[in-house]
Every structure is written in structure tokens, then in C-alpha cells.
Design brief:
mainly beta; Maltoporin, Chain A; four-stranded mixed β-sheet; 22-stranded antiparallel β-barrel; 40 strands
């Protein structure tokens, strides 16, 4: 890790030197940027100086040439149309401590206990459709695709370093992040991000080590725009299958468990497995080109883009290895190891009629690579006053290869390779300007190959209504999906779990919406989805239900304050018509009571206590062999708050937090679990700092 820190500090020195000598360029906003900035102001997506707000309320066509002396802005890229959606660069003033916690990524989250561990949201509509390489889904919080990466444009070189730490040397949990970005002129930007996690863990054999880093660049001019993104990811998780008995946490004085526990240290609690790993590594190479054609208007020679041609190439490869080195034979007659006894099957035995493979350690590998190329033609919104929408059409071809352990010869490190080809056509109809109505409609259809017949229709619309002199935002969103099963949903082979299935397409119909009322700091949202042929994980296999399942969810976000006293609340209600197939907590809540005050012109202090809690239900268990969350009917989890007392400090360009995590550890039965047999960390002090080096 030291070499990475040295390289970053060297780059910081270079950036700061350039900052002193660089002249001050101006940020130009034109039609090439998707979205009306005045709407972004209303939605709190980006903050501009007060002197510019009046100008920005003009339509885009009237303010293309406005030069805005704003230090930095960011955007997300649509890989098919090349459109950019402006977002606010992170400048969190409150709740900075929550960004360091997996709990803080939602109202209710299930995870293994320490930073870097696999996780899953307990709110159904926060979960994505299973990806084509499903082993990465549990690391979605750490893994970024090109469309999830924020590109930057900086007036001066930007550098930020983040570091957090918890625990002692034996169970330390550390995270180091750095972001570097610099413009070379007004059009070209280059940047680098790194995220390094090292957690020894508070429980035996539950350590993890992760590193993700990327290089990115953008070139944005009137006619030609280019975005490039190169990323690598490496995740190494030690697996323990959870503690052997939950009473070590809920009833530690019970004689049945006390006799097996050596001392009061959490690492002395027995765990189910002691030599098991999951390792994932991969890379992404992405490049998007967009060429605008149009005309120059007036004496100013202002360029007005009419249509665009977009070419996108996206290459990714990922590898996953599951290994278990436990060779201790506990049943000599069968050759079973301690790990073997946890599973119903041992498919290595079928590879040798004499059974000598039965105690061979698991060493199963899976891999995936894909090369996507897409070409799109886009008609830009607003190049004439009567053109009230944008229209994009594209075609995409995807070549894929998958490997997994051989079914015919189930031997460690022997794999078979399978190929797929798919061609999609799609389109987008958008209206992103104006205050009365905005909408975005996307359609995507598989026309050739493995995804023939796959259909995705997604859309959203928003408007604003005046309430007490302020705009309240109303949004509606819906989708219709006919999803073909992915390769690993139909074929999966390891030493312990195996299936070969012919699955039907999954159909999903969803409608939902939200209303945001700034006058009362209220956000009310909800939705309902009907699912046919839902695919899920049972005790040791993958299953598909033929039932029509409905999921309904409502959520209220409400902020209250009286002077410096603030009380923020998030409450979610969910129900599923088939709880045995889609188990969900009926109620989930996050509450945050704090004091917020400003000391002098540049120092902001937040002091408070917060908690996450949900009602008891049969939370899916984590299975390291599949790296998925499997339904179970043995243990209910919930009804216990994961609480934190914290201090956040914001001083100019520096943010700092200190917290005592899991302060309710000794409350009641101490049921501080988010997943069956996986307790969260015991009460521990955590701290972190974010330092912005930009001038």
C-alpha cells in the first residue's frame, strides 16, 4: 500500500504546483450537456454562485454562451447517446460519518459485519436485476461501471484524500481513497481514483482486502466529445460461514456456549469454516465518441448541434475463484472434511469411481468476458424552438464468453468455455427542458442471439407544482421487462452446489412515483411491481416460481428542525404476496437526532446519535459458494437497533468524523445481526477524514 500512497502524494505535489501557475478558465454550459440547469438547481443537483442563478433560469438556448466561474462540476454519461447529466460533486456537510458505513448505504442493509464484505439491500426496489456476472452483485457498493463513474471538469486541479480507521491492530478496519483530476485547457480532463480496503475483522477468518482503481479522461468541444474509462478491481474475502451459534452474541452466559468460548474477545467465538476464500478480479475498458453536426448562429458564430453520431466500445473481463483448503478429514469412511459436512453434495466424487477426490479441497473457477460495440444516431433537443424533445436510436452487438468448472469431469481447475452473441436495438425519447413537463423513455429489445426477445421499456416523467411560493416536484416512473435468464442462472457448478436448468423469461411490470415538498422537507415515494417467473435462491439451489408475485412499498423521508436541533427520519413499508419467495421486513426505519451549528464563518459541527432498525423476518442467509443470498426459514433477524453516536466536523475543505459504533450492543438480548449467524462489529470507535487539496 505504501507505494500507492507515495505515487498519490507525488501527483498531489504536481497538481498543487500547476494550480499556482494555472490561469482561470471558465466553465461553458451548452446544448451538449443534457438537462436544464435551472431544473438542476430546483432539484439540488448542483450549486452555483448566487450571482449566476438568475441567468441560469433562462432556457438553455438563451444561455449557451454564459461563462460561469464555478470551480468544478461533474457528470454521468449515457453510454448509448453520449448525453451528460450534471450532478453535484460530493460536498457533504452533514451525516459524513454515514458514508463510511455499509449500514449508511440504505435504510436497511444486510452484510457480514465488516467493511468490504458482501451486502444486499433489504429494500426490494433498491436491488438491481441480477447482472450477467452475478458474483459481483454482492460488491455493488464498491464496483463501478462506466455509466456509474463521475467525470469531472475542474477550473483548478482537484485532489481529495479520504482515510478511515477502526479497531486495534488485531482487528483493524481501514479504508483509503484518493481522487485526482486536472484540466489541461478547457476541453481536456484527466483523472485517477483509487479505493483500498483492508479489514482484519472482529471475528475469526472474516478478513478482506480490496482494491479498485481507475483512470479516466474526457475531451469536450462543440463538435467532438470523447470519454474514456479504464478500471481494475480486486476483491479477496476470507469466509467463515458465520458463527456456529448465535447465542454467543444473544446469550453469552448460557452454559452450552460459554464452555466453548475461550475468553470475551469476539475472535474467540467459534466459526463454521476456517480456510475458505472468494477472490474476484477484473478490468474494464470503455470509450465513447460523439460527433455533433449542426450550424453556427448569428454574428457570435455560436455552434448549435442538430444531430449526433455516437460510437461506444466497452470491454470487460472478470474472474472468480472459490477455494477451500480445509483438508481435515472428520469421517474417514467417506473422506469427508469438516467443510464437506456443511453441504449436502460433493460433486468432486463423481469424477472418480474410487472416491479419492472426496477430500480434495475446493478450487472452482468461473470467468466472463464481453466486448460490446454500439452505434447511435441522436437528434438533439432544442436546436430549434419547435423541437421539444430529443430522439436517439442505437444498435449494440455483444460477444461474450463464460467459463465454469466442468460438469462432465468435475475436477479442480478444469473448466469448460461457452460462447454467446447478442444483438440489441434500442431508442430513447427525452424532454429535459422546461418547468411544466420533463420525461425520459428508454426501449431496448434483443433481436438476435442469446437475448432474443428480451425487452426493457423504462420511463419517467416529472413536473413541478407551486406550493406556498415554492416548487414541489412530482415524478412518476414505470417499467415493463421481459428478461432472459443469464448464463450463470442456468448453469452453475462447484464442488458443493450444482444446477443445470432451463428457465423461463422473467416478466416485471412496475409503476411508482414520488413527491418532494421542500416547504416541509418531505419526500413521499412508493411503487408496486408484479413479477412472473421470479428467479431466486433456495437452501442450496436456484429456483423459479411460476406464481404472480406482487411487491408493494411506501417510503417517507421527513426532516424536522427547531433552531440547531434536527431530527431526520426515513421510514419504509414493504409487503410481498409470497413471503417465502421474496421475504421482506414490513417496516424499516432510520432515525437521526442531532445538533447542527456553525462556529464562525467556516466551521460546521454536527453532534448526534442515529440508528437503523427493521421488524423481524426471515432474512436471506449469505452463501459463499454462490456469493448470493439464499432464502431460509430457520432464523428471524430484526427488532434490534444498530446505533451510532457521532461527531462530524466540516472546516473549509476538510471533513472529519469520530463515532462510537454499535452503542446499543448491550441492549436487551444484544441481537446485533443483519444476516443470520453474522453479527456486526461489537461496539468500537471509528474515525475518518476527507481532505480536499484543490485551490
Amino acid at each position: 500500500m505504501k507505494k500507492y500512497i507515495c505515487l498519490i502524494l507525488l501527483f498531489l505535489g504536481f497538481s498543487l504546483h500547476r494550480a499556482e501557475a494555472q490561469t482561470t478558465p471558465y466553465l461553458i454550459v451548452g446544448d451538449s450537456i443534457r438537462g436544464d440547469i435551472s431544473g438542476a438547481l430546483n432539484d439540488s443537483l448542483i450549486v452555483f454562485p448566487d450571482s449566476l442563478k438568475a441567468k441560469l433560469k433562462k432556457p438553455i438556448s438563451e444561455r449557451d454562451s454564459i461563462a460561469m466561474s464555478y470551480k468544478m462540476y461533474g457528470w454521468y454519461l449515457n453510454p448509448y447517446s453520449g448525453d451528460r447529466t450534471i450532478v453535484n460533486v460530493d460536498s457533504t456537510l452533514v451525516d459524513f460519518h454515514q458514508t463510511s458505513l455499509i449500514d449508511g448505504q440504505g435504510i436497511a442493509v444486510g452484510y457480514l459485519g465488516n467493511m468490504g464484505s458482501p451486502m444486499q439491500s433489504k429494500l426490494f426496489f433498491e436491488r438491481k436485476d441480477q447482472s450477467i456476472f452475478p458474483f459481483l452483485d454482492a460488491f455493488d457498493y464498491y464496483y463501478k461501471t462506466p455509466e456509474e463513474h463521475m467525470f469531472l471538469n475542474t477550473k483548478v486541479p482537484y485532489s481529495n484524500i479520504y482515510y478511515q480507521k477502526a479497531g486495534s491492530k488485531q482487528n483493524s478496519e481501514e479504508r483509503f481513497k484518493a481522487s485526482l483530476s486536472s484540466n489541461f485547457g478547457k476541453k481536456l480532463n484527466l483523472g485517477f481514483d483509487i479505493d483500498y480496503i483492508y479489514s482484519r475483522g472482529f471475528y475469526s477468518n472474516l478478513s478482506n482486502k480490496q482494491m479498485t482503481y481507475n483512470l479516466y479522461g474526457s475531451y469536450v468541444s462543440d463538435r467532438y466529445q470523447m470519454h474514456a474509462y479504464v478500471a481494475n478491481n480486486y476483491y479477496n474475502n476470507s469466509e467463515n460461514e458465520g458463527i456456529t451459534d448465535m447465542r454467543y452474541i444473544t446469550d453469552p452466559t448460557n452454559p452450552d456456549v460459554q464452555a466453548l468460548k475461550n475468553n470475551t474477545n469476539s475472535k474467540s467465538i467459534p466459526v463454521r469454516v476456517n480456510s475458505m476464500w472468494n477472490r474476484l478480479k477484473g478490468r474494464q475498458l470503455f470509450m465513447n465518441h460523439r460527433y455533433n453536426v449542426g450550424y453556427e448562429m448569428g454574428d457570435s458564430n455560436e455552434f448549435i448541434p442538430v444531430a449526433s453520431f455516437i460510437l461506444t466500445t466497452n470491454y470487460t473481463d472478470q474472474q472468480r475463484r472459490f477455494a477451500s483448503k480445509d483438508q481435515s478429514v472428520v469421517k474417514p469412511s467417506t473422506g469427508q472434511t469438516a467443510t464437506d459436512t456443511l453441504y449436502n453434495h460433493n460433486y468432486y466424487q463423481s469424477g472418480n469411481k474410487f472416491g479419492i477426490m472426496s477430500n480434495t479441497p475446493a478450487a472452482d473457477q468461473m470467468a466472463y468476458w464481453s466486448l460490446k460495440n454500439s452505434f447511435a444516431i441522436s437528434l438533439n433537443e432544442g436546436f430549434k424552438d419547435w423541437v421539444k424533445f430529443g430522439l436517439t436510436a442505437y444498435v449494440e452487438h455483444d460477444i461474450r464468453k463464460f467459463s465454469l468448472p466442468s460438469v462432465e469431469n468435475p475436477t479442480p481447475l478444469v473448466t469448460t468455455v461457452h460462447s454467446q452473441n447478442s444483438t440489441f436495438i434500442g431508442g430513447q425519447l427525452t424532454k429535459e427542458r422546461g418547468r411544466l413537463l420533463r420525461y425520459n423513455l428508454d426501449a431496448r429489445l434483443g433481436v438476435i442471439g442469446a437475448n432474443l426477445g428480451e425487452l426493457k421499456l423504462e420511463g419517467n416523467a416529472s413536473t413541478s407544482i407551486r406550493i406556498a411560493g415554492k416548487d414541489a416536484v412530482v415524478r412518476v416512473n414505470a417499467h415493463l421487462k421481459n428478461l432472459t435468464p443469464t448464463f450463470y442462472q442456468e448453469r452453475f457448478q462447484t464442488k458443493y452446489i450444482r444446477w443445470i436448468e432451463e428457465l423461463k423469461n422473467t416478466q416485471k411490470v412496475y409503476i411508482g412515483g414520488e413527491i418532494i415538498i421542500p416547504q416541509t422537507n418531505t419526500r413521499l415515494s412508493g411503487g408496486v411491481e408484479n413479477i412472473q417467473n421470479h428467479i431466486y435462491y433456495g437452501s442450496d439451489s436456484l429456483l423459479q416460481s411460476s406464481k404472480n408475485i406482487q411487491v408493494v412499498a411506501l417510503r417517507l423521508d421527513q426532516k424536522l428542525n427547531a433552531g440547531i436541533l434536527h431530527w431526520d427520519n426515513q421510514i419504509a413499508y414493504q409487503t410481498s404476496t409470497e413471503e417465502g419467495i421474496i421475504p421482506l421486513p414490513k417496516l424499516s426505519a432510520y432515525t437521526n437526532l442531532y445538533l447542527l451549528t456553525k462556529v464562525g464563518p467556516v466551521l460546521t459541527i454536527q453532534l448526534g446519535v442515529d440508528a437503523h432498525i427493521h421488524t423481524k423476518y426471515y432474512v436471506p442467509r449469505y452463501e459463499p459458494v454462490t456469493l448470493q443470498f439464499h432464502n431460509q426459514k430457520d432464523v428471524k433477524i430484526g427488532g434490534f437497533p444498530i446505533a451510532t453516536a457521532y461527531l462530524n466536523v466540516h472546516l473549509k475543505k476538510t471533513r472529519f468524523f469520530a463515532m462510537m459504533y454499535n452503542i446499543a450492543e448491550s441492549l436487551g438480548d444484544s441481537e446485533y445481526f443483519t444476516l443470520p449467524y453474522y453479527p456486526v462489529n461489537p461496539m468500537v470507535f471509528k474515525m475518518g477524514i476527507s481532505w480536499d487539496f484543490s485551490n
